[in-house]
Amino acid sequence: MSFLIERADPSQIDALCAIERKAVQLFRGHPAWASYSAISIPPELLQQAIGRGLVWVALNEAAVPVGFVWLDTDAGDSVAGIAEIDVLPDHGQRGIGAALLEHACAWAGAAGYRRVDLGTLADVRWNAPFYAKHGFAVVDKDGPAFAYARERDRENGFPDHLRVFMSRPLSAPGRGEWTVWPAPAKLNLFLRITGRRPDGYHELQTVFRLLDWGDEVRLRLRDDGEVRRLGGIPGVPPPTDLAVRAAQLLQRHARAATGVNIERAGVPPGVDIEVTKRIPMGGGLGGGSSDAATVLVALNQLWRLDLTEDVLAELGRQLGADVPVFVRGRSAWAEGIGEQLTPLSLPSRHYVVLDPHEPVPTVALFQAPELTRNAPRATISSFVSGETTENAFAPVVRARHPRVAAALDWLGGFGQARLSGSGGCVFLEAKSFDRATAIAARCPVAFTAQVAMGVDVSPLRDALARHRGAERATRTTGGR
Ligand SMILES: C[C@@](CO)(OP(=O)(O)O)[C@H](O)COP(=O)(O)OP(=O)(O)OC[C@H]1O[C@@H](n2ccc(N)nc2=O)[C@H](O)[C@@H]1O
Ligand SMILES: Nc1ncnc2c1ncn2[C@@H]1O[C@H](COP(=O)(O)OP(=O)(O)O)[C@@H](O)[C@H]1O
């Protein structure tokens, strides 16, 4: 029997939950049975993980899910965990679990994680002995590194005396291997236009709230100096793709700048680029800009250019007004055309982000005669007090795009719904994950809902720190 492993899709949630329920039956009669059978996967958490690309599914020849693996990246800076791995009992002994495990570990290595951890039963053949065959070793579970995992075990009521914790070390991706980088989405928590510059660009004030959810950019160095886009986005030819333009701009800058040697021995100056698009295009969530920023930041590291954040932000500004905030990687108060940034520390919030499936052309909106361009200046304190929440584009978009208006109206039934950027995506702030998922679960079929968390620091900065750490560790242990 052959099988295929690919990223899980939200439509597979029920199937994956059913696989887990069948797989747990194998523990019947084991002392852990009572606690294992009492705990099932919360579908909303699985959906959240699928939306972040942390779940892979094994499909049989009929494209039916027969197993899955779920990675948890909340455990620590450079550690990923196996949250769940299950294969249908009648599909056991065929290498499906092993392939899923290897797939998840390969992704974690490419994303700069240094270790994969898991908790399992010591005495069950397809548990600890299986993981031991795949490079995992039992660790001292009393160590501080496992406090988080044990706390989870306690919450789940798992029998501590029967459980072992295991770790597998990962090495940094080698020269010709893929590396994986996040490109988070943003929301504009308010947006005011205060004037227009002689070059036609608008002076605005906004708060960029970075999210813990977005696109995934994959980069692989090329020896021939070329920048190649694999896959590509329908309707976006590679020369106009912001990810490609960012790589080319950085390459040109590095070749022209004094003191920067892109052709330095050992660092191939070309790159293959792949992007997994999750952020709706033309949605006001800054997807293209974030892809570009991720390419700038990641290639600065991979090409060992050592350009400063200021230089990268300025290169980003040349690509688009929204790029600098993603390069700097902090939620921020913004002025100018969006490039004058003051980092903000905002209260922890979850967001229901609704895609009405109606791309809104930014340029046309900035040109709209009815757009208010002379708003009085807001202050950070007026935003913090909750007084300033309006978006200058909202009345224009409402009048021109009925689907966006309908999305605002529907979401507005649960609280204050706002437009992000020039739209068409709209969002609502919620104080808890449960509240946000409860609203998202009721989303009408005409729209798509995503729950995301606001973050002060971009996942890109975390990824950069991870990749740097992994490279340093591999260099010092002579792993490459
Ligand atoms: C409206 C905002 C709010 O965050 O976001 P989106 O809705 O695009 O996500 C941004 O200002 C969009 O930034 P971005 O999408 O990067 O814009 P750019 O590519 O630089 O510009 C596209 C076009 O929009 C107009 N533009 C853009 C920014 C600005 N401050 N004034 C403008 O007039 C210009 O006509 C420009 O040619
Ligand atoms: N890598 C990319 N991802 C998304 N859009 C891109 C990309 N490269 C170029 N574009 C173009 O930029 C436009 C704006 O896209 P996007 O940044 O997703 O939305 P917004 O500016 O509304 O936040 C798209 O409609 C597309 O034509």
From TrEMBL:
Keyword annotations: ATP-binding, Isoprene biosynthesis, Kinase, Nucleotide-binding, Transferase
Database matches in SUPFAM superfamilies: Acyl-CoA N-acyltransferases (Nat) (SSF55729), GHMP Kinase, C-terminal domain (SSF55060), Ribosomal protein S5 domain 2-like (SSF54211)
Catalysed reaction, written as an equation: 4-CDP-2-C-methyl-D-erythritol + ATP = 4-CDP-2-C-methyl-D-erythritol 2-phosphate + ADP + H(+)
Signal peptide: none
Transmembrane annotation, as ranges: none
Residues annotated to bind ATP: 280-290
EC number, as in UniProt: 2.7.1.148
Top-level class of the enzyme under EC nomenclature: transferase
Classification via Pfam families: Acetyltransf_7, GHMP_kinases_C, GHMP_kinases_N
GO molecular function: 4-(cytidine 5'-diphospho)-2-C-methyl-D-erythritol kinase activity
Family, as annotated: Belongs to the GHMP kinase family. IspE subfamily.
Free-text function comment from the UniProt entry: Catalyzes the phosphorylation of the position 2 hydroxy group of 4-diphosphocytidyl-2C-methyl-D-erythritol.
Protein's name in the database: 4-diphosphocytidyl-2-C-methyl-D-erythritol kinase
